[in-house]
Amino acid sequence: MSTEHRTGDAPESGDRGLYASVVSWMENLSETQYAYLLLTPAFLLLGAIAFWPLLSTFRLSMFADSFGQASVGNFIGLGNYVAIITGERSALLPSPFLPEALTTRAFFNSALAVTVIFTVISVFFETIIGFVQALVLDQEFRGRRWVRVAIILPWAIPIVVQGMIFYLMFQPNIGFLVGTSDNPAFLNQLGLLSTTPLANAQDATMIAIVADVWKTTAFMALLILAGMQSIDRGLYDVAKVAGASAWQRFKYVTFPIILPTVMVAMLFRTIQAMRVYGLIETVSGCTTVPSLSCLVVTTFNNRMLGSSATIAFITAAIIAVAVSVYIVGYVRGGQ
Predict the structure, then answer these.
(1) Euclidean distance between CA atoms 16 and 318, whole angstroms
(2) Per-residue pLDDT at 4
(3) pTM
(4) Contact between 129 and 217 (Cβ < 8 Å)
(5) Consecutive 10-residue runs of the chain (335 residues): their mean pLDDT?
(6) Distance between CA 1 and CA 34 in Å, rounded?
């Protein structure tokens, strides 16, 4: 790139020595370095947009809760973090942040445990089912277009409508999947659900997971399918000529190439699952299934702004750790 394009005309007045130094420095930049220099204002703007809310939330978390006229109380430093993590604040929170005991009931009453359980199980099944759906859709067969529509349809349904569907399905005396104590349904007879599953934390969490898998598997399938269709079909022809079976073609051709795409899809879904709120609120309510986002919203509505900001910042930190794990795995997988 020429000097004229980079610097323009020299100023008629001013410090020509400083101007000459800047011109000399810019002339010594490589094309890549000069491109980054031009992108620096955009990076700074995006950084301010991304990090200013986090910094503001962290600052708010350093103040005590105020239940009076003031929005926040006195400055207490990391006191909110200590109180929430150690359980000192549990009596004032709608649900404990950490499990108070090593029991099933305690885990399903803990906001962090419920969020982790929801995220791990839902992302696992969405990835497996989405992968299978992508493998099917990657084949040529009659009616493939209609199968794609059928798979995508649940993803197009709004969360509120989705939540009401599953709420009615598992509502006693209304839904066909749940009966009463006098007339139990099939799932009740198998012992998989109680007769009031939406009022039971464990049952309601599993119902929310099923609802999330039903809706969001299509998202995983579409991302993985896009990666599969970018694979050079000549690789499969070479593998067939070499005598590779269908399993060997999948193991040595499809899976290694598609793995980075699967990692990116899992990263997106993990971030979304960690922030789950609307689905839980519409299916059973946050009082039954206490996710981290539910805890943030509830404490905020109760004017516990310091606690709400603290839980929000901890949630962001957990998501950042999860993203870092995915990135490290992605980089190592690409080496």
Answers:
(1) 51
(2) 47
(3) 0.81
(4) yes
(5) 48 64 79 85 86 89 77 83 88 86 87 93 94 88 83 88 87 72 66 78 91 92 89 85 85 87 90 90 88 90 88 92 83 64
(6) 9
The rounded distance, in Å, linking the Cα atoms of 330 and 24 is: 40
d(CA 206, CA 195): 14
Which residue type is seen at 231? I
> How many CA atoms does the CB half-sphere of 329 hold within 13 Å?
14
Whose structure tokens read 């986002």?
Answer: 293
Give the number of other CB atoms < 10 A from CB of residue 40.
Answer: 9
Residue listed under structure tokens 């009022």: 199
User: What's the topology of domain 101-334?
Assistant: MetI-like fold (1.10.3720)
Q: Give dist(CA 282, CA 147) in Å, integer.
A: 29
Distance CA 193, CA 172 (A): 11
| Contact in structure between 163 and 208 (CB atoms under 8 Å) | no
Residues of the chain with CATH 1.10.3720.10: 101-334
Helix, coil or strand: residue 63:
strand
